[in-house]
Design brief:
Blueprint (H helix, E strand, L loop, with lengths): L1 E13 L8 E13 L27 H45 L1 H67 L7 H10 L8 E2 L5 E2 L1
């Protein structure tokens, strides 16, 4: 990426009509020019103009070096063939063992089917036991809830009875309360009643001593 910074001086003509005079002003402005090298498109390959007629010459080969490389390549191929043959010979017993195991597995297919059937029956029995246990637990929980509900109902009934009794006693006391209508009558009753003398002693057992 190449960049260059230059300064451009140009004349900016500003015409203004001030006393019918044209004014010419000179301004200096700084700017930056940046050139970007974009990547070539791959769908339209293009060669550089200097390489259009270029033909690469083959690299010269040394005969002695080529003879040495050919000999070493033959030795390398021989060694690789011997290693491959050894590995294949070692693999044959393992392949035979795998085949025997596969055949034994095929023979034991019936045993596997019976094992699967036993497993299915066992799963069904366990599911039935689990369902019965969950049902019993749900019934026990429901019984506890019902008993608590009955206790709460009884407690509410007792509270309602106590509240009714309290209201009745309050109503009775209200009928015996003093008001302006029976005030004179109650005062006369109080004055006519015999006075109670509380000036007496008592023993340790609570008997009065007159």
């Amino acid at each position: 990426m190449n960049s260059c910074v230059g300064r451009l001086s140009f004349l900016s003509m500003k015409s203004c009509k001030a006393n019918n005079i044209n004014i010419l002003t000179t301004e200096t402005t700084s700017f930056s020019l940046t050139s970007v090298r974009f990547r070539k498109r791959r769908d339209q390959p293009r060669r550089a103009p200097s390489k259009i007629y270029y033909v690469r010459q083959p690299t010269p080969k040394d005969p002695e070096e080529m003879a040495f490389l050919n000999t070493e390549l033959k030795h390398y191929n021989t060694k690789m063939k011997s290693i491959t043959a050894f590995l294949q010979s070692q693999r044959r017993p393992f392949s035979q063992m795998v085949k025997e195991q596969n055949s034994a597995t095929n023979h034991n297919h019936d045993d596997l089917e019976r094992a699967f059937e036993l497993n299915r029956v066992w799963n069904e029995n366990v599911a039935k036991q689990r369902t019965a246990r969950l049902t019993a637990e749900a019934l026990a929980v429901q019984a506890i809830k019902d008993s608590k509900l009955a206790e709460n109902i009884k407690r509410l009934e007792k509270e309602q009875t106590r509240a009714k009794e309290l209201l009745q006693s309050v109503a009775e006391r209200r009928t015996q309360a003093l008001d302006m209508d029976n005030l004179d009558e109650e005062l006369e009753k109080f004055l006519d009643s015999e006075p109670i003398n509380h000036n007496f002693a008592i023993t340790a057992t609570g008997e009065k001593i007159r």
